[in-house]
Amino acid sequence: MDAPLLVNGEGAALVAEDGDYVAARGFKKVSEVFWIESKRMWLIALPIVFNIWCQYGTNSITSIFVGHLGDIELSAISLINSVIGTFAFGFMLGMGSATETLCGQAFGAGQVNMLGVYMQRSWVILSVTSILLLPLYIFAAPVLKLLGQQKDIADLAGNFAIKVIPQFLSLAFNFPTQKFLQAQSKVNVIAWIGLGALFVHVGLLWLFIQMLELGLTGAALAFDITSWVITTAQLVYVVVWCKDGWKGLSWLAFKDIWAFVRLSLASAIMLCLEVWYMMSVIVLAGHLDNAVIAVDSLSICMNINGWELMIFIGINAAVSVRISNELGLGHPRTAKYSVYVTIFQSLFLGTFFMAVILATKDYYAVIFTNSPVLQKAVSKLGFFLAITMVLNSVQPVISGVAVGGGWQALVAYVNIGCYYLFGLPLGFLLGYKANLGVEGLWGGMMCGILLQTLLLLLILYKTNWKKEVEETNARMQIWGGQQTEVDKIAASA
């Protein structure tokens, strides 16, 4: 891992003897650093974004097939995906983020042998987590009824939830394996697997729903098979082609597992607090006077916001890899410059999308509805959607830095304060007490996102990157296992 800063031989004058950047002063050096770091980030981010688009396409195409079965079937699958699925998926993804931190730092530090151990440790933790979350799927129908959903839709959704349990269980192996590959920048294979799985899924939907007329059971089978195809393909690639990081099954996966659990829980809480925060807007909107228009208009805006957010989820993963690798390598200035470049580019993209929304706020609702009333309601929310797009361009990047640096617990505390002690109560007051409706709800909660973003930017500004490098090895020992274990693996390799 010598001088990984170089991109096709560029930037040699910017690299010190230890492989870190020298101080970039003057326009020429700053622009060179900006160019190199941009290429390094996007080489990782683009395949991840492509894979996320394929996953989103899988859900969208399933909804299209199911939508032709009937409205109640579409409502049932939408409920499972948006309520039960989002809750469980978000928690499992967060639990798997610990692997992203430790694998990235271990790879940067040259302790490649530890990557397989961390991945196996995460398999164990996520498998137990998935079993603990199974009651959500088994008792989905009563849970949805408790949340006020219609009995017929809730019963159908509950039946569908039980049939997609195999798909949910695959996440326990899918997420850690994906993080294992991302930490080594082996992201192209993830993109190709995602594309192949999308074609497989479309074929399965056509076979099960169109040809065999299995209805929602066919959709569930397609989900189950596709998810395990992705998981199996990733596992095969790891075992066959990742000989440096994969040394076979090891009992070390069970040692010092509680420290790993603590980091995993911090990661899960950090991510879930963000996911559930935006979900709560729609839940609260459902209790307004004109609930149908409020929920529908918000759903359209969130759908549009979701397309943009996928880009920044890819950037989130890319900057996490960059930061964890460089901290593991002992390159504080590279880590700092990578953060600055990524935030600048994300802010630029967010501003661009904001301008597009403001220019088209009176028209884009036509894509989703023919109702003039709903179109007008969506148009009124255009300003809030535009500002949210800017905030959502910076916030995921900072979260990626947190994962790369191992600051999940700190960010979780910030999220609790900004989101649930400030933004959510403010949105409730503006929406209900001040009678501002959905605009008040969204505006108040947007203030929570703004406060969180400003606080995290301040934390980044105050960060001592040299100290972060010094603490990285200690973090790896505490969370990933004792140094003696690392030495044992290195000696036996």
Automatic annotation (TrEMBL):
GO terms for molecular function: antiporter activity; xenobiotic transmembrane transporter activity. One of its GO terms (cellular component) is membrane. The chain crosses the membrane at residues 42-66, 72-93, 123-144, 156-175, 187-209, 221-242, 263-286, 306-325, 337-361, 381-403, 410-430, 442-461. It comes from Vigna radiata var. radiata (Mung bean). One of its GO terms (biological process) is xenobiotic detoxification by transmembrane export across the plasma membrane. Its main location: membrane. It comes from the Eukaryota. Keywords: Membrane, Transmembrane, Transmembrane helix. InterPro entries: MATE_euk, MATE_fam. It is found in: Membrane. Belongs to the multi antimicrobial extrusion (MATE) (TC 2.A.66.1) family. This is Protein DETOXIFICATION. It is a multi-pass membrane protein. The keyword Nucleus does not apply.
